[in-house]
Amino acid sequence: MKIISKISLVRIVLIVSVFFFGTSHAAAQQKGYNSDFILGKWTSQNGDRTIEFVKKEDKYSAVISASAEKSLIGKEQIKNLRWTGSSYAEGKLIMVRKGRELDCQVAIKDDNTIEISGKVGFISRTQTWKRVK
């Protein structure tokens, strides 16, 4: 019985993820964002970390520019994101403290909001980030 419950939960999470990614994808296309939209500083939903996106050739990376943990400042948090025409994909989210990399994508929600998703296998986590003004 527990296996069925876990499988059902995974299906629900996948359906919800596809729905939210699809709606943000459509919003980004409608708004006409360009590839450099992501450049600049963004702060996490709980305000404990700020990252700055930079462009390296045709890909985007983010470095931690402010953090409650001072030892994290200057470390690369995201690398190799590629603009798809309406979102960013095929990047790697670096779990600095654990030394692990997850698949990463970034969806544009509005002019000042992005959602950064890290995924390993069927498990993913998404955080909302706000542009620093």
TrEMBL record:
Q: Which domain of life is it from?
A: Bacteria
UniProt keywords, alphabetically: Signal
Q: Where is the DUF2147 domain?
A: 41-131
Hey, what's the signal peptide range on this chain?
1-26
What Pfam families does this protein's entry cite? DUF2147
Supply the name of the protein. Uncharacterized protein (DUF2147 family)
Species in which this protein is naturally found: Flavobacterium nitrogenifigens
Recorded hits in InterPro entries, A to Z, give: DUF2147
